Amino acid sequence: METVIETPVQAVSPERLPVVALIGRPNVGKSTLFNRLSRRRKAVVDNTPGVTRDRNFAQVKWRGSPFLLVDTGGIDPPLFRFRGGNKGGEGLVGRVQEQTRLAIAEADLVIFLFDGREGVNPADAQAVDLLRRSDTPVFFAVNKIDGDKQELASNEFYALGFDSLFPISAAHGRGVSELLDTVVETFSKQEESPSPAALGAAAPVTKPDLRLAIIGRPNVGKSSLLNRLVGVERSIVDPTPGTTRDAVDSWLVWQDKHILLVDTAGVRRRTRIHEHIEQASSLIALKALERAEIGLLVFDAQEGLTDQDARLIRYAWGRGRGIVLVVNKWDLIPSDRKNQLQFIRALHDEFPVTQPLPIVFLSALTGSRVKHLMPAIDRVAQAHRTEIPTPVLNQAFTEWTIRHPAPIYHRKPVRFYYTTQVETRPPKIAVYTSSPDGVPAHYERYLENQLRGTFDLEGTPVRLDFRARRPQRYGKKKKR
């Protein structure tokens, strides 16, 4: 058999991606730029102002530097004229303004787009004034500059007092490279700047053994759950959706483990986006997931899981975060419908993404069944950090591939030679095979399911990295 040098398992700490928010008035081309940078037609593009109602997000990599790109709904001119108020348009605009300010504060960098064809708009000057008061770095780009003639016309935006502008065409890619080069260069400078601890700021008393992000839609009971877990009124609890405006860190000690919990503003359902409330909330949830290992996705037992919840699960899964589903307000379900097995079966049928996840039914308000949550979190955390011995892993893969061989590829059987775990958090398995491209998706799912069932990897992503067999490494042949 071929000699293979075993790769040591690496513990991968959660990596937080910088967040870039696209902001601007309706119909300036934010979604077009989002689609170009994410390289997919994920955001709806239409000439009608205000098409983007929900917040789209995608991981983008430019010149080797990854970041999280967030597309937002357009800023309406009244947004900058009012703040707060009673019921009616003024109060609604005030809430939208507050959420826009929150979006700017939560982003690591903002790209504000102007409409180069329309020219300077009075609302643009109001927006620029707001952004200049923010501590967040802002790059101003004039979109729809498709040629030299339009680029000359874009100079009128310098009247707003800029030292530099980025004339771009999101539709054709003109000038986008220069904009992105400056974005990633800014992130590099931020990483090189002194940390708060280096400047004398107080460092945390202890390093957490586990980081948890509490995420979900507004008014599903996230703050109530946090308060129940830590035993104090750490977060304000209010029946009005969206009470939580910022991420709140709390400490919890459980079985001698120091756990950091992050409460977040809720993520709105698509059906309520038309109310213009909580536009910035999903950005906060995403940032919380970025610095956590495990996410607690809380949803209302009466309302059920939504497509937006499923999107968050897929995002967390893709970023290597473990997930525990928390079905809150279970005490409000009528007794004739309180069948957990039926609930789980229906949930798996509608949202297959939930099948590998543990599900805890509880009531954060009354404390009923909350005692089952921490053991479930601990199981996922252990699965997320698990290390499988190479001999055990190889024996298991041999049994699985013999019992259910891979399909024939190019008239040849796909052979599996060697497997070893190369990373944790989440577990990543290197699989050396004769044909890495010959392993179809359904067979990869088969191997992943076998891994989960055999090694108790509930609630954590599992990465299978199929690699070509390494070159043989024999010594010099002895002369006979």
Alpha plus pi helix count:
12
Give the amount of beta strand, in percent: 15-25%
| Uncertain segments | 1-6, 42-55, 77-93, 193-205, 267-280, 471-475
Distance between the termini: 22 Å
What is the CATH level 1 assignment of the largest domain?
Answer: Alpha Beta
Gross morphology is: globular
Would you give an account of this structure?
There is one protein chain. By secondary structure, the protein is an alpha/beta fold. The chain folds into 3 domains: 19-192, P-loop containing nucleotide triphosphate hydrolases (Rossmann fold, 3-Layer(aba) Sandwich), CATH 3.40.50; 210-383, Rossmann fold; 390-468, K homology (KH) domain (GMP Synthetase, Chain A, domain 3), CATH 3.30.300.20. 30% of the residues lie in helices and 20% in strands. The protein contains 12 helices and 16 strands. Strands 3-4-2-5-6-7 form a 6-stranded mixed β-sheet, sandwiched between helices. Strands 9-10-8-11-12-13 form a 6-stranded mixed β-sheet, with helices on both faces. Strands 1-14-15-16 form a 4-stranded mixed β-sheet, with helices on one face. The longest helix has 18 residues, at 89-106. The two termini are 22 Å apart. The model is unreliable at 1-6, 42-55, 77-93, 193-205, 267-280 and 471-475 (pLDDT under 50).
